[in-house]
Amino acid sequence: MKNIRGYETFVKVEPLHKGWSGDQKYYIETAEGRRLLLRIADSSEYSRKKTEFAMMGQVAALGVPMSRPVDFGICDNGRSVYLLLTWCEGEDAEIVLPRLTEQEQYRLGKESGELLKRIHSLPAPEEGEEWSSRFNRKASQKIEKYKACGIKLNGDTEMTGYIENNRHLLAGRPQYYQHGDYHTGNMIVSGENTLSIIDFNRFDFGDPWEEFNRIVWSAAVSPQFATGQLDGYFGGKPPLEFFRLLAFYISSNLLSSIPWAIPFGEEEVVTMKKQAEEVLGWFDDMRNPVPTWYLQDSLMERG
Q: What InterPro entries does this protein map onto (predicted)?
């Protein structure tokens, strides 16, 4: 850590353990009173981390309130790579939202959708593979890994059937920059109820609508927030084509969540099983692509 530029100004260094990232994370205070977030990863991730830092700079330039990039480099005598970012003041949105009025939850959700639309304005590299072939292969791999893992979900037949019957929806989808893990767990709400976005380390490039596969976490916390996110992103009610793809991406993600959870233990497996049952209820066992949490006839003011 001593190789990090500005290390001599660090007067407080506290390790952070929240989240699933493999990065080592630290809360930093400097002698000048700055509050920063330090992320350290193995040097083998240098190329990806360099791109992560650069893309965060492009997102910040769009005016997105976020953990902004400050510095990037090599540390630990070449063994590690680091990102130094600004610290976002506030609490996790998933903690704050239940304390707010439904109207305020919807407003913050709408703001998150508008911010995501801005994030998705950054194009993917032109040399990337066509989306339909790329994600169809990915979906097939997820189904294979799920079938091989030995743990079964209630309703897996409905989910795999929906995927197989709707692969054609991927044709012609555009590709843009994705945050990669966009949900209430990676959003900070300040004391003034303003929103900031954090944890861009899972960034990717792909269909911007695939980004909504994580909305299951937000909807479980606040249907009003999730509804607002869709309304904010689309400037009103989303088209039916979006909901059909949403069900496709969420089904694909849920199947892969089981083999992902197994190494983390029984508790995580149970969490994913519970989420799958909840999602099946939202989509009426995959018969209705519009989830029940989307408050179409809500009395909340839209606009």
A: Aminoglycoside_PTrfase, Kinase-like_dom_sf
Q: Residue 160 contacts by C-beta under 8 Å, 6 or more apart in sequence?
A: 143, 251, 255
Which residues are within 8 A (CB) of 67 and not within 5 positions of it... i.e. 6 or more apart?
Answer: 37, 56, 85, 86, 87, 88, 196, 197, 198, 199, 200
Residues of the chain within CATH 3.90.1200.10 domain(s) are 89-299
State the pLDDT at residue 17. Answer: 86
Q: What tokens appear for 206 in the block?
A: 């792909």
Distance CA 34, CA 14 (A): 14
Q: What is the pLDDT of residues 194-238, one digit of tens each?
A: 999 999 999 999 999 999 999 999 999 999 999 999 999 999 999
Answer yes or no: is pLDDT of 279 > 80.
yes
Sheet strand arrangement including 10-16: 10-16, 24-30, 35-42, 80-86, 69-75
pLDDT tens-digit series, residues 139-197: 999 999 999 999 999 899 999 999 999 999 999 999 999 999 999 999 999 989 999 99
The CATH number fitting domain 5-84, selected from 3.40.605.10, 1.10.10.60, 3.30.70.270, 3.30.200.20: 3.30.200.20
Return the sign of the alpha-carbon dihedral for residues 292, 202, 144, 259: negative
Residue range(s) occupied by CATH 3.30.200.20 in the chain: 5-84
Q: Is pTM beyond 0.85 here?
A: yes
Three-state DSSP string of 99-157: HCCHHHHHHHHHHHHHHHHHHCCCECCCCCCCHHHHHHHHHHHHHHHHHHCCCCCCCHH
Domain 89-299 has CATH 3.90.1200.10: yes
Look over the chain and give the mean of its residue pLDDT values, rounded to a whole number.
94
Residue 62 CB-half CA count within 13 A: 18
In whole angstroms, what separates CA 38 from the centre of its chain? 20
